[in-house]
Structures are given as structure tokens and as C-alpha cells.
Design brief:
Elements lengths: L11 H6 L78 H12 L8 H7 L5 E4 L8 H10 L2 E4 L3 H13 L4 E4 L5 H12 L5 E4 L7 H10 L3 E4 L19 H7 L4 E6 L4 H11 L6 E4 L7 E7 L3 H13 L5 E5 L3 H13 L4 E4 L5 H13 L4 E4 L12 E6 L6 H8 L9 E7 L2 H13 L3 H16 L20 H10 L22 H22 L4 H8 L28 H17 L4 H4 L2 H10 L4 H5 L5 H22 L42 H17 L9 H10 L4 H4 L7 H17 L6
Parallel strand pairs: 1-6, 1-7, 2-4, 2-5, 3-4, 5-6, 8-13, 9-11, 9-12, 10-11, 12-13
């Protein structure tokens, strides 16, 4: 509340108790102000701000907007003046025609892909949790609404990711911006004010930005129409890339006034989807839009190679056979990354290392060169992750097995985002599983470890003079082994504020609930077993992945090494279909009773092997692929009883074949027709790569990208190149029919393209 000047002396005693002299008043609003505080507690102005030119009771000046880290003394939302007049929340279009016009005019896309239409139709009435595979245009699900209703905030986990997305949007003529710690405060303020005033419809921020309460209050006062959470699996402790700073987003959504919310991810099984909705506070009303996670343009393969040196030699040979093609080689450790990059360079391949141990500027330069096409191969740890959106990556190699299928599928899925064919190869040895088990142990501290961290944090918070429990570091600065789980346990125990990294207690003996860590460790170990099953199976690898994400694929895909017959396997044994059906029915019953997905009980392949070998003892049961000790202890007796009853009812059945514990059976042959939202309008067979027009257009794109200092794909994709060659447009109107050329791109460089096409008119096709 504002205090009249004649009444302020009445607060002298209170101000002195707070250590504030009466003379220390905010120049912007006149409120008493602690001279040590970087911001005014009442209006957000800095101490050196001049009084605003407008009335003293008006909004603070632009310079008074605080975008950085929140001050120690946190202002309540009620006392923070709005920066602009509150706006009424805009209504989302209910007809697809408005979106369809934007899709064609701005981006040059004639039709929606995958689940885009379902998401856009749902937004007027529902919050949405959407799972769409990489390459199906998830970002358009919030970009198109932002262009229609404005004031859309996108939460993105990485600076590199938001920069890349904004750069691509600006190349298409979309007015979007981002705020992060890499730009100075003055520029942060300028972008922030442009957004809340409605001058820019789309703002990307990292979740840490909401730790500043004035930032959040300013957004609420302006009126946010859409809150989009990208890479939403990061909010789930059951997801593969859990980030504690995402946990605050449910509370942030509430403080923003419950705007329409859209959560997007490419990889989330049913359990993770439920957790996303609950953590964001949109369950159970939110609508789920789940499209197939299948990427039919990707070929999956596994090579069994034991030694590190043998793996490097294999990778060098593989890369040298694909000169000039963009590729990513993932390696588990920083040392391994450096050794692999050196081996490639020694073999004459342009390759660079990327890992968290490199200086930030070096990492940015390597990534930039890779995105621009100057560097064909990058060797990286999983630190090279969600910021990668290069569409023409033709292969991804994993020298080591990741710890879970989601992580592998997301990293492998960085290949072929343009819809063209790409290869994903995992090099595997059984020792990989032991390494991953060690990572799981490091990431899950025991009760003593969590308690020790709590003691240290209480001591650090208490060392801050006149502090309010805030820790003297940002949430990511202590991201050591076990940090994420420790933060989750302390938040679940009510000892850390759900938004800011601020302790709500200083009791070193406060009770801490670590049961979530125990559950999460068991969960991660189960995911590791499933990843090992993928590496060791001689069945369809794509099918195993799709079943993991809750889909029911056909038996074969003809696009993985096993279905293509690249490896020699033992001949498949026939199985008894009626017994198989009874085993699957038991699996469904077990799944319902434990609130699990059926696939997490056991796979279809396990059911087939049970129906084939009909184990009669616990030892024989444990030898069946996909059972093991834990599952045998859980429901082994039920399975043995079911099989024995079937045997009694079929006395004339042939005896089961023997099942050596080391033998792995194949799957029955079959044909499959795989569909997906990712397609390529013009196939490689429709044109030759040495077509003169294609070569000329590609050279023009490279030169244009270099002149703008941007990646070539932001000009347009390879699919657009092929469409230009196929259609050979002769005027601006014809250019508008080319896939990927919207109104903005045609206006920017349409005439140059027509000149290139005209120069090759009559060239041989």
C-alpha cells in the first residue's frame, strides 16, 4: 500500500527495526527502502532509478523492470505495480481455417502433420499434454496460436534450444524472442517489455527465470494467453531427463493465473504422461494427444563389439564410408569423446569434441559450426542434447548403451528430422549394463547422503546476512551426482519452496522423506533392463521401442537389422497360440492390479517363449527371456500354475523343446506397413543428386546462409530443394506452391530462386 508523505514518520520505528533509515526512500514510488537491497520491495525500481516522468502512482519506468535473479527480500504480488494495463485473455480460434492460412502463408506448408490439428482443435477448451515424435512439428502447436492470440510463453530447458528455435522462426518472418542469461540486462528488459506490451507474440524462457517473482507478476498482469512447456518430460521424475527446476512449473502456472497450458514432448510413456499432467496441475481435465512415436525413416541396428578400441575402429570405418554426411557420435565419457574425435581426425575426418568439460565459448563454437554445416561430424556426451535441431543428420552412432530407452530414442532421433532416411546404430557389450548400474547408484543418494546435504544447505543459508533461507547459488550450480533426487526429496518433504530454491526450514533435524528416491531407483533399474532387452533382442527393435511407449506394432518393420536379416539367429520355434492368449490375459490382470502398463509386466516376446518352452520349475522359468529373478519372485508361481493347468487340459500335446539359458529365440516373420506423420514429398529416386539445378540451388542456399550467418536449413530444408527441382517454378505465384516456401520466404528471396531456376531451364533431368 502507498504511504502518504505526511504519514511516513509514523513508520520510523518500524523502519529502524528493519535497519532502514527514513531518508532511504525509493525514488520511483516513495516507499521506505533498505539501502542494501538491489530492488525496491514495493515497485521493483533500482535505487539509482530516477522518478518516472508520469504520475508517482503510475507504473515503474522501463529501467525499473527486474529480469535478473530475485532479491533477497521478496515482494508480494499484491504490492507489485503492473507494467501495463491488464489485458483480457484472448480466445483461441475454433476453426482450422485461420491456422491453415498461417501455416501456408508463413511457413509454406499446405497441410498439418501428425497430431497438430488435434492439439489446435483442443486448445480453445482444454489444457493439452501432447506426445509427438521428433520431426512432426511440435513447435507449430504453440507458434500458430501465438500468432493468433499473442502473449505465448514457451518454457524451454536449454539456451541453445531456445536460440535455435527463435532463429528458425525469425527466418520464417515470425516475431519471436527469448530471454536468457547470455544477454545483458538492458536487452533483457527491452525484450521483456516488448512482449508484455504485445509487440512480440512469442517469448522463450528457461524455467529458472520464474524464480524472480517480479518477472512472473509482470507476466500475470499483462495477461498470458498460452503457457507452452517444451520437453515436458523434464518435469517428471519418471522421465529420462528429470530436471528439478521444472518442478516449479505447476506453482508458476497458478501464479500466472492458470493460462491455457500445452505440454509437449517427443518421448513419454503413459506413466510419464500422467505425471506431467499432475505436476503441471492440469489433471484430470487435460486432453492427451498422443501420436505414434514411430520414425519410419530411421533404420535401427545394434553391433556387438566388446573393446573400446574395437568400437572406435568400427566407428571410424563407418564414418569414412559416408564422406560429407552430417553425423553424431555419442560416447559415455569426456575422455572417450576426446579419443574418438582424435581417431576420426587422424583418419582424415573433420570432427570435433563436445562435452560439458569444455569452455562454454568452445562448446558454442563447435555446435554452431556443426549446425552451419561447416563441421560434418560431432563427437559428444549426452551434454549435446535438446538444443540440437539440425534436420539433415544422416546417422547417429552410440559407442555405449544409454541407461533407458527414452534417452536412446531421443538421442538417436536427432537423425533424419527432415524425413529422409537415416541410420541409428548402437554398439553394445554386456559390460555396458554394469556401467549404467553405477550411474544409477550415483544418482540416488541414501538417507545419510540426503541428510548431509540438508545440513550443509542449512549452514549455507544461515550464513547469508538477513537472509530469508535463500541459498547463495542458483539451482543448477550444484548439479552433482544425486542433486536432482536430493532436491526432489527435500521439496516433497516441504523443506524447499516449490518455486525458488529457498529453504522453508532451518531445522537440521527436520524429517526428510526419501521413499521417493527408493522408488525412483527401482524404476531406473527396470528401465535399464528394458534398454538391455533392446540391445540383446533378435526380434524387431522398432517394435520393442513402440511397445515401450504404449503402442501395439506389427511383428516386423523391415527397417531394423533383425528384420532385414543382417544377423544370424537361431530358427524361431513355433508357439502354442491358445496358451499364449492365456498368458497374455494373466499379464493384463497383473498390470491392472498394480497400475502398470502391460508391457512393463513382460513383453510379448516373453509370452511367446513361455508358450513355447512351457517351463515347469522356477529355474526353467527364470531362464525364459525377459523373466529373471524379480519377475519370477513376483508372479512366477502364477505362471507355473497356469502352464501346469494348460498341460493337464492338453495331455496329447507334444513335449516342449529344450530351452538352453543362453539361447535367444527369433520372432515369427510377417509384413508390416508403418505409417507416420513424417513423410518426404519428393523421394531421392525422383531426382539425382548431381542434377544441375539441384546442385545450383544447394550452392545458392549455402551462400545465402553464410551471408546471413545462419544454418542452411533455416533458409529452407532439403525437401524444399527437391520440390523446387521437381516443379521448376517460373513465377512468384508458382513459388508459393513449393513445400516449405511461405509468403515471407518468397518475399525475401523468391526472385533470386527464380533466377537460379531460369538459368538452368532446359538442363537435363
Amino acid at each position: 500500500m502507498r504511504v502518504p508523505s505526511h504519514a511516513r514518520l509514523g513508520f520510523e520505528g518500524r523502519d529502524r527495526c528493519l535497519g532502514v533509515r527514513v531518508a532511504d526512500l525509493c525514488a520511483a514510488c516513495g516507499e521506505a527502502m533498505d539501502p542494501r537491497a538491489p530492488w525496491c520491495d514495493a515497485c521493483g525500481a533500482r535505487p539509482d532509478d530516477a522518478p518516472p516522468l508520469a504520475s508517482a502512482v503510475g507504473p515503474p519506468s522501463a529501467e525499473g523492470v527486474s529480469i535478473g535473479r530475485a532479491p533477497v527480500a521478496v515482494a508480494s504480488p499484491e504490492r507489485t505495480a503492473p507494467l501495463v494495463a491488464p489485458a483480457e485473455r484472448a480466445a483461441f480460434p475454433t476453426e482450422m481455417s485461420a491456422y491453415r492460412r498461417k501455416l501456408l502463408d508463413v511457413f509454406g506448408y499446405p497441410e498439418f502433420r501428425g497430431g497438430q490439428k488435434a492439439v489446435l482443435r483442443a486448445l480453445p477448451e482444454h489444457d493439452v499434454v501432447a506426445v509427438m515424435p521428433t520431426g512432426t512439428g511440435k513447435s507449430l502447436c504453440y507458434v500458430l496460436p501465438a500468432l493468433e492470440v499473442g502473449r505465448a510463453v514457451v518454457v524451454s530447458p536449454l539456451i541453445a534450444l531456445m536460440q535455435d528455435q527463435v532463429e528458425s522462426l525469425q527466418a520464417a518472418g515470425v516475431n519471436a524472442t527469448f530471454i536468457n542469461s547470455h544477454i545483458d540486462r538492458e536487452e533483457q528488459n527491452r525484450r521483456y517489455l516488448a512482449f508484455i506490451r504485445g509487440e512480440v507474440p512469442l517469448l522463450y524462457v528457461a524455467p529458472e527465470r520464474f524464480q524472480n517473482p517480479r518477472f512472473t507478476v509482470g507476466l500475470k498482469n499483462a495477461g498470458i494467453n498460452l503457457l507452452a512447456v517444451d520437453e515436458a518430460h523434464c518435469i517428471s521424475e519418471w522421465g529420462h531427463n528429470f530436471r528439478p527446476d521444472y518442478l516449479q512449473l505447476g506453482a508458476v502456472r497458478e501464479r500466472l493465473g492458470f493460462p491455457r497450458t500445452l505440454a509437449l514432448t517427443a518421448t513419454a510413456n503413459p506413466q510419464v504422461r500422467r505425471d506431467i499432467a499432475q505436476r503441471l496441475g492440469v489433471a484430470p481435465e487435460a486432453l492427451e494427444v498422443v501420436t505414434s512415436v514411430d520414425r519410419p525413416n530411421l533404420t535401427f541396428a545394434v553391433e556387438a563389439i566388446e573393446g573400446a578400441e574395437e568400437r572406435r575402429r568400427w566407428a571410424v570405418e563407418y564414418v569414412r564410408e559416408r564422406p560429407g554426411l552430417a553425423g553424431i557420435v555419442y560416447v559415455r565419457t569426456r575422455r572417450g569423446v576426446e579419443e574418438m574425435a582424435e581417431a576420426l581426425r587422424n583418419a582424415g575426418v573433420k570432427a570435433e569434441a563436445y562435452h560439458a568439460g569444455l569452455e562454454r565459448g568452445r562448446r558454442s563454437l563447435v555446435q554452431r559450426r556443426f549446425m552451419l554445416g561447416e563441421l560434418p561430424v560431432i563427437v559428444a556426451t549426452n551434454a549435446f542434447g535438446m538444443g540440437v535441431d539440425k534436420p539433415d543428420v544422416r546417422y547417429v552412432i552410440h559407442l555405449n548403451m544409454p541407461g533407458r530407452i527414452e534417452a536412446y530414442y531421443q538421442e538417436a532421433g536427432r537423425a533424419g528430422r527432415d524425413g529422409d532416411h537415416a541410420e541409428c546404430t548402437l554398439l553394445y557389450a554386456r559390460a555396458d549394463r554394469r556401467f549404467q548400474q553405477g550411474f544409477i547408484e550415483d544418482a540416488h543418494p541414501d538417507a545419510l547422503g540426503v541428510r548431509a546435504t540438508w545440513h550443509r544447505w542449512v549452514s549455507l543459508a544461515s550464513s547469508v546476512p538477513n537472509g530469508d533461507g535463500r541459498l547463495p547459488f542458483d539451482i543448477g550450480e550444484e548439479n552433482t551426482d544425486g542433486f536432482a533426487m536430493t532436491v526432489a526429496a527435500l521439496r516433497d518433504s516441504g523443506l524447499i519452496d516449490p518455486v525458488a530454491l529457498r529453504l522453508t526450514s532451518t531445522d537440521v533435524n527436520a524429517p526428510i522423506d526419501v521413499s521417493g528416491i527408493v522408488r525412483h531407483r527401482a524404476h531406473e533399474e527396470a528401465r535399464l533392463r528394458e534398454m538391455a532387452e533392446y540391445a540383446e533382442t533378435n526380434g524387431c527393435r522398432r517394435g520393442l521401442i513402440l511397445r515401450y511407449f504404449g503402442e501395439e506394432p506389427p511383428e516386423r518393420c523391415e527397417a531394423c537389422d533383425n528384420c532385414l536379416g543382417r544377423h544370424e539367429h537361431d530358427e524361431a520355434q513355433p508357439y502354442l497360440s491358445d496358451l499364449y492368449d492365456e498368458i497374455v490375459a494373466l499379464r493384463e490382470q497383473l498390470a491392472r492390479s498394480t497400475d502398470r502398463d502391460p508391457y512393463l509386466v513382460f513383453e510379448n516376446r516373453t509370452a511367446r517363449e513361455l508358450a513355447t518352452f512351457r517351463p515347469a520349475s522356477m529355474d526353467a522359468l527364470r531362464a525364459v527371456w525377459g523373466i529373471g529373478e524379480r519377475r519370477a519372485a513376483w508372479f512366477g508361481q502364477d505362471l507355473l500354475r497356469l502352464i501346469a493347468e494348460w498341460e493337464e487340459g492338453h495331455p496329447a500335446s507334444a513335449p516342449p523343446p529344450s530351452n538352453p539359458a543362453v539361447q535367444q529365440l527369433g520372432l515369427r516373420p510377417g509384413r508390416v506397413s508403418v505409417s507416420s506423420g513424417v513423410t518426404s514429398a519428393v523421394s531421392e529416386e525422383d531426382m539425382r543428386p548431381d542434377d544441375p539445378l539441384y546442385v545450383a540451388l544447394r550452392a545458392w542456399r549455402t551462400a545465402r546462409a553464410k551471408s546471413e550467418g545462419a544454418p542452411a536449413y533455416t533458409i529452407f530444408a532439403d525437401r524444399t530443394l527437391r520440390d523446387l527441382v521437381r516443379l521448376r517454378p517460373r513465377n512468384m505465384h508458382a513459388l508459393m506452391r513449393v513445400w516449405g516456401l511461405g509468403e515471407s520466404r518468397v518475399e525475401r528471396f523468391g526472385r533470386e530462386l527464380l533466377e537460379v531456376v531460369a538459368a538452368h531451364e532446359g538442363a537435363p533431368d
